[in-house]
Specification:
mainly beta; Jelly Rolls; 2 domains; five-stranded antiparallel sheet; 4 helices; elongated
């Protein structure tokens, strides 16, 4: 692949045309002689300032007999231990029948660990249920859209609990074509790897050809950039900016030319 008529663009989400840090429109000043058909993310730096529990996905429901109450957990980052310290008082104060709940996790210093929560209830007249849609189920150790009912006053999480902030962030843009195996406008995916909360996800392109995307026909100088989590929701960077470097270029792939020539000759 030969790259011709290229241009590198540096974008700071603070300098957006409209929108928020996580979902914005940016505008480039492009002269008439600049003709690009391909774009590639060369570099990106995204702060891990988003929370494990966000303010838009921090509720679950407790069912006791015919009563169902919604419980809201404060947005922020948690460990398994701090999570139980916050959730247990919320469960007990929200209980419609004043039942008493507890949550524990095996301690690695004196027991084998399985990464699951163990729930108990006392003072109850029947078996309660914990209900989840697409919020908090990973932190509690259950499945999405599930109702989990106590048996014999106890309940064990179905899955290992999750207390790692989003490990995959997807950059969507209306700049690129939606065809072949890229039908969701994903310009680039980013992985946190071993990054910790309040540090940064740092991405550097390994190969321009392998990570380039075709620009859709008739694109305008203004285009959108949106950071999406692995569940399809817009990220919340809590007012922190992020940075990206884009390479715009005109591709001149000699193999494409050969394929067109061969196809023409076959048709003749």
């Amino acid at each position: 692949m030969n790259i011709t008529n290229s241009r590198i663009v540096y974008i700071n989400s603070l300098n957006r045309t409209t929108g928020s840090n996580e979902d914005f429109v940016t505008t480039l000043s492009v002269s008439p002689d600049e003709q690009y058909d391909t774009v590639c993310v060369l570099y990106a730096q995204i702060p891990i300032s988003y929370y494990l529990v966000s303010s838009t996905s921090n509720t679950f429901q407790l069912k006791e007999n015919s009563s169902i109450v919604t419980i809201t957990i404060p947005a922020g980052n948690y460990t398994s231990y701090s999570f139980t310290n916050v959730v247990v008082p919320l469960l007990n104060s929200a209980s419609p029948n004043h039942w008493v709940y507890s949550i524990s996790i095996n301690n690695s210093f004196n027991n084998v660990t399985d990464g699951k929560f163990y729930y108990t209830v006392s003072g109850n007249s029947s078996q309660p249920s914990l209900m989840f849609t697409n919020n908090l189920y990973e932190q509690f150790g259950f499945n999405k859209n599930s109702t989990n009912t106590f048996v014999g006053n106890s309940l064990v999480s179905a899955n290992v609990v999750m207390f790692i902030p989003e490990t995959a962030v997807y950059l969507y843009s209306d700049l690129i074509e939606t065809k072949d195996n890229n039908n969701t406008n994903i310009l680039q995916e980013f992985y946190a790897e071993n990054s910790v909360p309040y540090s940064n996800i740092v991405y550097q392109c390994r190969t321009v050809e392998g990570y380039s995307k075709k620009i859709k026909n008739g694109y305008s100088n203004s285009f959108s950039l949106t950071l999406i989590d692995q569940h399809g929701g817009i990220m919340n960077l809590n007012n922190q900016p992020w940075f990206i470097t884009l390479l715009f270029y005109k591709s001149n792939n000699i193999f494409d030319i050969f394929k067109k020539v061969i196809k023409y000759n076959l048709l003749q």
